[in-house]
């Protein structure tokens, strides 16, 4: 094997490893919840912030806001 061929192969392999690592990391912010879905089924629900890992190309992450406030206003009857 030629030295430049080996170097090119290692460079391609390192690039693929970087892409897989990048696609397996996700970040949950302080104002978010995260739901990890594997083929549409819930795998886990994440409520604490931080750097997390998932299985690339199999798991999907859906984010929800913690800051959404639902207010139940009292119903006033007209008499």
Automatic annotation (TrEMBL):
GO terms for molecular function: peptidase activity. The chain crosses the membrane at residues 6-28. It is an enzyme of class 3 (hydrolase). Its EC number is 3.4.-.-. GO terms for biological process: proteolysis. InterPro entries: Band_7. Keywords: Hydrolase, Membrane, Protease, Transmembrane, Transmembrane helix. The keyword Protease applies. Residues 27-78 form the Band domain. The keyword Nucleus does not apply. It comes from the Bacteria. This is Membrane protease subunit HflC. It comes from Microvirga flocculans. The lineage of its organism: Bacteria, Pseudomonadati, Pseudomonadota, Alphaproteobacteria, Hyphomicrobiales.
């Amino acid at each position: 094997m030629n030295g430049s061929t080996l170097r090119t192969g290692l460079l391609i392999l390192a690039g693929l490893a970087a892409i897989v690592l990048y696609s397996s990391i996700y970040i949950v912010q302080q104002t978010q919840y995260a739901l990890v879905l594997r083929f549409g089924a819930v795998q886990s629900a994440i409520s604490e912030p931080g750097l997390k890992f998932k299985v690339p190309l199999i798991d999907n992450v859906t984010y929800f806001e913690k800051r959404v406030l639902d207010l139940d206003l009292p119903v006033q009857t007209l008499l």
